[in-house]
Amino acid sequence: MLEEVTEKILGGRMLSIGIGTKLQFQLGEKGGEFKAAGILVGMIPDEYLLIRVPAIPGILSRLNEGDPIVVRYVYAGHVHGFSSTILNSIQKPGLIVFVTYPSEVEAMNLRKAQRMDCFFPASVKTDMGDYKAVIVDISVGGCRTRLDYEVVESSSIDIDQTIAISFHLTGMAEEQVINGKVKNLKKDSQFFEMGVQFDQENEAVLNNVKLYIESFGELQPVPVAKLP
Which of 17, 186, 187, 200 could in theory staple to 193 by disulfide, Cβ–Cβ 3.0 to 4.6 A? Predict the structure, then answer.
């Protein structure tokens, strides 16, 4: 599944995620995977988790007792994942899947996470002012942002400076706002480009970026219905 550090979960210790955390999950065996997103709506430590999932066509046939499920999420700057087994599912008042509580969780450093090309209009806020920008690639660790060279004074943005970036992710209505640190700068006659490292404490935005990449960056993404 993931290849980095494995975190053992002790008996009675809760997972390092809260109710409402967005999850990415995978059903089925390798070669016939079915991928979608869900939301953690409850847990009983050492017993089971409750995940609300969208009613995607074909998903019910894959929610059988004993079927395997792989769950991933973002926490504290790492992508975490674990293997589990479906216990049961209910369809009312929403599609809720009960899965076994994991015995261990694997964590992968986000610096090895996938980086995806994009074109997101954005706003960059610095101590000197606000600037219109475009995010040209993004990962859970950070992004590459391009500004119009003529509107950015040469001294207004420096290496290791903290800035705020606002942008919209495709498929998500809410605006994403996250602080970041400028790690590199590149200038030419037309553009001012900077590499930004995201604040890894902002779990909500990191999770949304991860879900965006999972949904749009893989070979066979599954459309996710919007949950109420």
Answer: 186
